[in-house]
Amino acid sequence: MKLRLGMIGGGEGAFIGAVHRIAARIDDEYELVCGAFSSDAEKSKRSGIALGIDTSRAYSSYKELIEKEKQLPEDQRVQVISIVTPNHVHFDPTKMALENGFHVILDKPMTFSLAEAKELEKVVKSSDKLFCLTHTYTGYPMVKEAKQLVKSGKLGAIRKVYVEYPQGWLSKFEEGGENKQAEWRTNPAKSGISGCMGDIGTHAFNLAEYVTGLQVTKLCADLNIVVEGRKLDDDGAVLLKFNNGATGVLTASQIAAGEENNVKIRVYGENAGLEWQQTDANTLKVTWLNKPAEIWRTGAGYVSSFATHNTRTPGGHPEGYLEAFANLYRNFALSIKAGLEGKQASPEALDFPGIEDGVRGMAFVENVVASDQSNEKWTNFNV
Amino acid sequence: MKLRLGMIGGGEGAFIGAVHRIAARIDDEYELVCGAFSSDAEKSKRSGIALGIDTSRAYSSYKELIEKEKQLPEDQRVQVISIVTPNHVHFDPTKMALENGFHVILDKPMTFSLAEAKELEKVVKSSDKLFCLTHTYTGYPMVKEAKQLVKSGKLGAIRKVYVEYPQGWLSKFEEGGENKQAEWRTNPAKSGISGCMGDIGTHAFNLAEYVTGLQVTKLCADLNIVVEGRKLDDDGAVLLKFNNGATGVLTASQIAAGEENNVKIRVYGENAGLEWQQTDANTLKVTWLNKPAEIWRTGAGYVSSFATHNTRTPGGHPEGYLEAFANLYRNFALSIKAGLEGKQASPEALDFPGIEDGVRGMAFVENVVASDQSNEKWTNFNV
Amino acid sequence: MKLRLGMIGGGEGAFIGAVHRIAARIDDEYELVCGAFSSDAEKSKRSGIALGIDTSRAYSSYKELIEKEKQLPEDQRVQVISIVTPNHVHFDPTKMALENGFHVILDKPMTFSLAEAKELEKVVKSSDKLFCLTHTYTGYPMVKEAKQLVKSGKLGAIRKVYVEYPQGWLSKFEEGGENKQAEWRTNPAKSGISGCMGDIGTHAFNLAEYVTGLQVTKLCADLNIVVEGRKLDDDGAVLLKFNNGATGVLTASQIAAGEENNVKIRVYGENAGLEWQQTDANTLKVTWLNKPAEIWRTGAGYVSSFATHNTRTPGGHPEGYLEAFANLYRNFALSIKAGLEGKQASPEALDFPGIEDGVRGMAFVENVVASDQSNEKWTNFNV
Amino acid sequence: MKLRLGMIGGGEGAFIGAVHRIAARIDDEYELVCGAFSSDAEKSKRSGIALGIDTSRAYSSYKELIEKEKQLPEDQRVQVISIVTPNHVHFDPTKMALENGFHVILDKPMTFSLAEAKELEKVVKSSDKLFCLTHTYTGYPMVKEAKQLVKSGKLGAIRKVYVEYPQGWLSKFEEGGENKQAEWRTNPAKSGISGCMGDIGTHAFNLAEYVTGLQVTKLCADLNIVVEGRKLDDDGAVLLKFNNGATGVLTASQIAAGEENNVKIRVYGENAGLEWQQTDANTLKVTWLNKPAEIWRTGAGYVSSFATHNTRTPGGHPEGYLEAFANLYRNFALSIKAGLEGKQASPEALDFPGIEDGVRGMAFVENVVASDQSNEKWTNFNV
Question: Is this structure's pTM higher than 0.95?
Fold first, then answer.
């Protein structure tokens, strides 16, 4: 039985909406039944038709979607709503959807501000519906393996974390032209107080906390607007202190000319280190103090149930970004279905990013910006 | 509008059936409406239910499927049939499906023998239905880019081709136990006269002819049964001569301990060479005589329309095996739809492997086996 | 004609002394004629014998070496003195050697303190003898190529620099045992106020300034003593600001478990970026905004005279650490010989690290330590 | 005490002579005392002066060198003679040198023909002097480690060997111009009956037999002259059968456009495989059936005495081609010195290529050419 899925945002020309839909289809756990793909009613209709949705369910606003769907019989009504709008249109539809009895999948960063994030946390906690935030990188099997390896204690106590996210696509003043992505992502009215750190720094931050199981307690940030005329940071570096005494360095840049999207994390413990990067996503390198480094691979027989659960093909068939994204959708579906069936979802299914990740992500953005503006070296990580 | 898809084979426990279904879903061009998932009626029914198919359309044999579907109204009837059975059950259902007016997607190697392949060629040629053979590797954007680069003449006349396909999964006598894959792939009654060369050698061969646009005219093969008790070759090497005078070396092995599935091709022309391998599928390395080697990447702005057409995400978001597979499904769908709309499909859409690839693949198998058994160095590539 | 070389330090069991001697031999520009290999007269003698030196010229102190050699006839007397003692025995012998008319090659970091470094600068500037500091990494052909590429302007104005130096060899409390390297490198009395930053951070810093041609103006440092009981930092991270407005991040660690010595630099300009790392020392990756990344290689025909000059073999024959080291020795010799012949040395020969690098390196150490101890975010880079 | 070294060939402009001299210097085991660097007396003199040799010992022919040196007092006389001339001038000087009491280091391929090789074998066996053939690749620490791993039995019985040597430098008709290397290496009068196979195929062959400890018993070769006008093969592929039943594929090419010199070997046993390539010379990859692949590294604590003995620096300091070459020189010197001291040289020291490697190398050339000309698939490997 497929879950009935609706989408807010993601109409014509939107990159991430299409990614969400592919992710939802890969494992056949969802059926797209409705959407408010655009605030322009005509466009939304057109997108709905292109996506094979009944035209009566291609709405012109998220409000209309939620209100109308609620009136449908329970066995036709949408069950899960994906929200893929720019940041400033995250909070309201998410809140309304949850309060009206729909599960929500929300694109990151979670909200426009930390205040919104904390309010949303209350909504989620008082709701009996589930919430998923699409920190895609945590969906990669080898990232999950990394987390399990740390958790197993094989690395020993964690001492050092390096996480980086270099991109080059904003090396020029792209927002002047027809690049819609550049337009809203560099626009404070749509993206909030940070550009680069909000967009990709939050991914790096989430990855660091996810893999290590640690939490950042202090940070020291330096943000830059490198390209003249730009309104938000397009580059930055952050020194980190974690709650176990470990330290770290997070870098994110959108002006690293020629870099694509190679998010990378390295974690070092007392006995061993590990390294994962998106360009070689099916490999996890484990480095040991006194023996050869090891190359752990997606689909291999020796990996944990968390990696295996999130893999569709035998070893040697590369799974990529879309499959990582699909893992979030699938795990969310499995968790919802377990609920519908009155069962307990498995730990593997429940391992998707949620409201706490979102709150901490927004706190990261605000603390980073505060630190950047401060002359003090260290800023406490306030939530 | 989605094409209505049926499937023969691919029931519980089958690896490749699941892959076909994911591939069909990724781009939303198909809706699975029926299947004969197993020759065991109960199993087929169970698979159908699991896949959300109307139980009346989960058939117990391909004959039943084709006959019953034919009786359905045209706008409900299946349009495309995927056949994912072992090799010995390829020819009959494909022939019957085509002759009854259904498009066919068939898993490779195409048939049990070259004779069957040539007969099937006649069927396809006399049919007005389309036929696709799933040589997955030709679906990778960077493999398509490689073909376009060769075609553009930038490499100069092609002189040398190295293609290799190392696996290690049959290093032990796996067919004795519960490994169903090992069971049928090493069984002459199901796989035909060759194991390794039929299963993966054909992929390597197809990749070589696809990328270079050349045809093999002579070959010299050495096949081995390395693991004691095995009935078909599990390793082999083939020297190749091409129709333009170039030479090549093809190796395939299933006893390369510790290797996953890293199919790799290198092609050298007068001025430049290129290299692609599945473990780094989004990269195409181009080596020049007198300037730095170049790293061409999936999703980049500078690649050809053939690569771009087969990519879903911007540069830096790795696409993998399932997306390559999906490219075959999508291009096949686009070509069928163009036909339904009375239009000419684009060259990019029409670029999927077909009956000629299948005939040449089966000829490869028979010629390789013949060469292996011959004391003559060179065996003509007979079709 | 070979230059007559003497060595201070580097006796039995010393790692770096042997490296210096190999570096001196590779290009046959030097003949080792004397040494004060140890402050223990017996040991020094023994080392001298092992090295094939006339026993009368194996001295028991640097003072003796300089005094006795000075009394030899000019055509027998040592010409160049290599000083490879721990940091606290750098200043005095270097000063004395220069003041007595000998050229000096000195191991880094240059001195025990910045004050010493600045005093040494005066000595060097008032001397007519040459001085070389062994920042080895600047001797790699592809590092030189990187510098030339930046200088050529092809990358555009530099915006971002990442430089890192991860090691894992001090992950445990090694200084308790028989590890002589660990002993002195973690001992403030021998190494000065910093361990990790003095030992390898200075290399990373020098590499960043060398490749970019820029200078650090401000920094923000966080140093750590990770291993319990250790007396000096074994890990650290530094945010950097450069004199053209670019920013950077420098990390150095000796507790990155399983890492060897993979110093790595990435530099991004307006149009392109470059990446070099020691584990793949003969490759320079150049990433472009709108065309394929390029792989520049040692020994290729297209590289600059600075790379070619520092390479001994045709492309494809990997040159490594010892050859990089030898490049410093060779360029120093070529510069000295040009002087002896009253000629101007070539720009390629003169491209070796000198006193300014040393002063800036010691300033780096002191500023980093000051910044680490400060609550202010930014510390001016004072020299 | 250094061994007194002489050189035949290797004058101005010769690439390999300079490499030999660097290799001899790196470990300080030799002192170059004489040479017949060119058959042109003036040139030889000039080279001698440039190399700092007493002009009286810069001879104009190898005969003169051997005769004159023999007349010198034993403690001044040359002890080891390096012969670095083109192939057709290998046999005579080697024979004469050995018969007159000098140890010989000879560049590969050993002789002009197999007949010469077998005659030389008799000379070596009846002499009490040592003989080393410079198959450089066996000098790499990680190649030695590979051999030890195979020998240890950890891989299980060897089943498959792939060895390849791709170069691109003869992609054009280089021998027409001023390229001296191209001139003699493509000239049958100087290189013998094979170009590519003699020059680099022999290296690949030697590497395969060295690492596996196996011997080729049959082969099937296809050689090509790809570039119009060339007189010797510039490309080829060879199927191999080994004496334990394993099979292999050897490829060598000088027209693989854009390739440098990336000799690579892969060996698969029942339980594991290994992979080494020159571009990443300090890494040995070991692939296991059911556990993560391992990255073994030069200089690590866990490698065998054979790797450690052939390494000068701690892990992470890349050693390259010149150090591999130097390992041959050093081991040869250690073996000679052991003899001079009446001791048994260590197994590590004795592990350098010798006369048997040379005979088998020349047999390889002749058998490959015979096989290429035969219509029979398999040619016995005759020695």
Answer: yes
